[in-house]
Automatic annotation (TrEMBL):
Membrane-spanning ranges: none
Protein name: Acetylornithine deacetylase
Family: Belongs to the peptidase M20A family. ArgE subfamily.
Top EC group: hydrolase
InterPro entries according to UniProt: AcOrn-deacetyl, ArgE/DapE_CS, Bact_exopeptidase_dim_dom, Peptidase_M20, Peptidase_M20_dimer, Peptidase_M20A
Alphabetical keyword list: Amino-acid biosynthesis, Arginine biosynthesis, Cobalt, Cytoplasm, Hydrolase, Metal-binding, Zinc
PROSITE patterns: ARGE_DAPE_CPG2_2 (PS00759)
Domain Peptidase M20 dimerisation positions: 176-286
Record carries keyword Flavoprotein: no
SUPFAM superfamilies: Bacterial exopeptidase dimerisation domain, Zn-dependent exopeptidases
Encoding gene (name): argE
One Pfam family recorded for the sequence: Peptidase_M20
Cofactor(s) the protein needs: Zn(2+)
Entry-linked PANTHER family: ACETYLORNITHINE DEACETYLASE, N-ACETYL-L-CITRULLINE DEACETYLASE
């Protein structure tokens, strides 16, 4: 590894941290800086603006055109700092005791900075395999940027074969995580006096039938746990996190909403749940509700559906990252990332990045300087696979 590349990564990180790219805000200023940087070193860059126009994905290529490239990917957005007890300005990076502090240092601008420094290092060489950088928006609120980017890559017929997603894993190789699907199901009933329940449609009572059905499905999923499952727990889970509805004890509840999530270990479990719910609504709940009021309804809103990363027997991404990190085993983790989307788009995907998820989303977020160094080292090793 060249010491210069590490110093370069650190200097870039300092700049990236200074852009307060909280998911609710624009990331355009950061993206403009990255475009400038990458174009100066000869990368071919395109931006994909979000629908609102205030955010953008960035995709860059160095080396030959064509399929089979290696993608280094990360998200540009960070979680909010409001209400957190920061000892310093979260958007001004500073060093103390071998750590670099600032919002996004570990989740995950550290990896972005290392990728950019590595891109500079390889830009003067003649590559036989394309290197791509994919920087996305809105990961923290549902991976919306990465979803759009996968569609754009398909439209442009760009087919990389390997994706390394640099979420903080302390440079461990992560080959799988569960999906994370989040929903709100809204029930609209018919209000009425509490003494005449049959004349109204009680949204809370229908919501509770729905919740019972979810609980039953949760039990079914346990029995479907894959034999060699390594997740904890090894089955797909369903969980209701919040319900709200009704106006008072003696009024038939006119509305109720149920916020729930499902974490599938395999796509077929999610399909099973969706089919079962559709049938339950169509055959039982809705006919019962509408028999009293044609205006009664029950509808599920998708908050976000983050695909799981499936563990696969043959994985080029895993093999490459084993070689460049010296690792000889891979783990699975409980948190969701964009990696499942890259896999779904046809790439071999693995997660490996600097810093610890322990520090992510917390006040006084930091990354160990050694972690940054290890990441630069890994990417320098990766260079040998491109030339
Ligand atoms: Zn992250």
């Amino acid at each position: 590894m060249s010491a210069n590349t590490f110093e370069e990564a650190r200097a870039i990180l300092d700049k990236l941290i200074a852009f307060p790219t909280i998911s609710s805000d624009s990331n355009v200023a950061l993206v403009d800086y990255v475009v400038d940087y990458l174009e100066q070193i000869g990368a071919r860059v395109f931006l994909q603006p979000s629908e609102c126009g205030e955010k953008a994905n960035l995709f860059a290529t160095i080396g030959p055109e064509g399929d089979g490239g290696i993608v280094l990917s990360g998200h540009t957005d960070v979680v909010p700092v409001e209400g957190q007890d920061w000892v310093s300005d979260p958007f001004k990076m500073f060093e103390k005791d071998g750590r670099l502090y600032g919002r996004g240092t570990c989740d995950m601008k550290g990896f972005l900075a290392c990728s950019m420094a590595m891109a500079r290092e390889v830009s003067t060489q003649s590559l036989v395999r394309p290197l791509h950088l994919a920087f996305t928006y809105d990961e923290e609120v549902g991976c919306f940027g990465a979803k759009a980017l996968m569609e754009e890559l398909a439209r442009r017929n760009i087919k990389p074969s390997v994706a390394i997603i640099g979420e903080p894993t302390q440079m461990r190789v992560i080959e799988g995580h569960k999906g994370c699907y989040e929903y709100t199901t809204n029930f609209i009933g018919l209000e009425g006096h509490g003494s005449q329940p049959d004349l109204g449609v009680n949204a809370i009572q229908y919501a509770s039938k729905f919740i019972n059905h979810l609980v039953e499905l949760g039990e079914k999923l346990k029995a479907r746990a894959p034999q060699d499952g390594r997740f904890d727990p090894p089955w797909s889970t369903i969980q209701v996190g919040k319900i709200s509805g009704g106006a008072g004890r003696n009024i038939i509840a006119g509305t109720c909403s149920v916020e729930w999530e499902m974490r599938p270990v395999q796509p077929s479990d999610a399909t099973l749940v969706k089919k079962s719910l559709d049938a339950f609504f169509d055959r039982e709940l809705l006919p019962q509700m509408k028999a009293v009021s044609a205006f009664a309804s029950a509808e599920t809103v998708v908050v976000g559906e983050i695909e799981g990363l499936q563990v696969v027997a043959q994985s080029e991404a895993r093999e490459i990252v084993y070689k460049v990190t010296g690792a000889n085993g891979a783990d699975v983790v409980a948190f969701g990332t964009e990696a499942g989307l890259f896999q779904e788009a046809g790439m071999s995907a693995v997660i490996c990045g600097p810093g610890s998820i322990e520090q992510a989303h917390k006040p006084n977020e930091f990354i160990e300087i050694d972690q940054l160094r290890n990441c630069v080292e890994m990417l320098s090793q990766l260079r040998a696979r491109l030339i």
